[in-house]
Structures are given as structure tokens and as C-alpha cells.
Amino acid sequence: NFYKEKKREDIYIRYLYKLRDLHLDCENYTEAAYTLLLHAELLEWSEKTCALHLIPRDGEHGWTQQELKERLFHEIICYLDKGKMWEKAIELGKQLAKMHESHMFDFMELSELLKKQAKFYEQIMHAMRPQPEYFAVGYYGLGFPSFLRNKMFIYRGKEYEWLEDFILKLLSQFPNAVRMTSTARPGDDICNSPGQHIQCFNVKPVLTVPHQFKDKGVPEQILNYYRYNEVDQFQYSRAFRKGEKDPDNEFATMWIERTTYITAYRFPGILKWFEVKSVSVEEISPLMNAIETMEIANEKLSNLVQQQACDRSLSINPLSMMLSGIVDPAVMGGFSNYEKV
After folding, report:
1. Torsion of the alpha carbons at 307, 313, 317 and 322, rounded to the nearest 10
2. Most CB atoms closer than 10 Å: which of 28, 173, 299, 341?
3. Which tens digit of pLDDT belongs to each residue from 62-100?
4. Is 263 exposed, middle or buried (0-12, 13-18, 19+ CB in 10 A)?
5. Beta pairing, strands 273-284 & 151-156
């Protein structure tokens, strides 16, 4: 950002490629794609000859901006495909297709692009796509370098990376650090201590439904992408009791403390982790908690019904089990407890 603001695009591009290479070494294909996209955004769809400072070191001289931008788009789409980010790959493919249809008139290339897009749409609906976990990490104590010290970050995990695996990897980078057991914000005694204290726990990304999907029956496979991508808000909920516990109905005094974290940039992006820029805390009453629980159950049920309607070959068991669990709940006193509250 510093080099971009100072108009030193030559150094800026050099660092983009260093970052891309680091990501590729770690098989972070999605982040490599977003890094390279920053270079593509400096270029125009024009026949102007590319200035030398805009060409990567291994690039050829004499390229037009359009030629280099197209080449970058193909590379980015390839990385997005490897990262199973087919929605973003389709978005960039559409831009390329429009250029070939309206400006370059290369219909053979257009044909190949449309075939790729068709494949991506198919994969969205049918391919297995494990969604990443997100982790909140706080670095507390004067033992950390200043860019980490007493700050909190949100990390995007890799496929099938669970909290314990992630923490082990994190602690291996800071062998002298102490893992904190509490998820509450630490006091000054820890923040001003000479040591290193690491706090780490799961957070849930907050879905923002795109406007074109609002109030429509959208298949779960399409919505799932937006549950874990294009997000910058994350929540952590902790149950606590307010008032005396009711022996007949434990829900009556069960409140939820919900903390919302907003990051500096949206995920996914050019890094696996971004700093938390704002934190807000709210208390959810037992009644609101009950309503939310029921809304979530309704949403799950609706998704199962949709999946069944789209593909009749699917097993009916998950739907029938959920229905019976809602109509005749056998655990925790059933919904009569909600009615009493």
C-alpha cells in the first residue's frame, strides 16, 4: 500500500510477485489469485503499449496492456479454480468473454471461455467443497513485535484445518508463548507483561445475502459460498446466566453475550489473516436467543427441503430425522420450555 500510494508501481509489482510466490509455496491458491489481481487492476483493456515498470520481471517487452491483462486473468482464473473459488473465476471469466465478444472478436477463445464457465457452474452445484474455519487470534504482552502486540487478527484456515491443528502451528512459531484458556479480552496485567500470551478461538462469519438473492429460493450450494467468502464480519457467542437459575426451565435465565469483530479487509484476500479494526458486544435475551434458535432450525429445514426438491435421488433420512426432532423433540424438555418463557 505504501509503494502504491507513493506511485512506485515498479516496486509495488515486484512485491506482489514475491507475495504470490510465497502463497504458491504454501498452496494458498486463492490468496495468490487475489494478489495477482492487484497487478491486473493497474492495467486497462487498451492497445496502449505496456510501460516497462508495469511488466513483471519474467515478462516480455512490447506487450500491450490488453495482452498482459488477458494473460494475468487466465493465470488468476487458474489459481481460483485450484482454490475452488469458482464464483470469482466466473466473474473474471465474464469480463474476459465480454472483451472477446465485443472488442477482440476472437470467437474461438470466447468459446473456450464459455466452456470453462459452464464447468465452473456445474462444480458449484455438484462438487464437494469443504468450507474454511475462521479463527480469532490475539497476541498479548510486550514480548511480541509491535505489529502484533496487543492486537487481534482473524485468520482464514485451510481446508479441513481444525482449531487444535491451527493452534499447534501457531505456537510452533512462538515457542515461548503461553496459550490463554479464556476467550475474554485480557486485562492490563497480561497486556503489559513482558511475556507472550496467545488467545485463539473459532469465530463464525456473518452472511450478507447478495441483493439478487434476497427473498428468493436460492439453492444451498449457491448460498454456501457467501456464508464463508466475501465476509468481513465475524461473531463469537458465549452463554451466561443472569439471575437465579430456574430448576424447571434453564432457558429462562440463559443469556448470550455476542461479540462482533470487523476486519480491515474482506476475506478471502491477499493474506490469510487481517487485523480486527472494530469490536462490539451485545447481550441477547433468552427470548431473542430462542427466536434465533428457531430461525436457524427453519433455515436448515428449508435447505433440506430445497435439496430434496432439486435432487430426488438424495437420502430422505436427514430431512425426516430433522422433522421428527422438531415436531416431537425428546431432549432438554422440548419446546414447552420456550412456551413457558
Report:
1. 10
2. 28
3. 788 888 999 999 999 999 999 999 999 999 999 999 988
4. buried
5. antiparallel
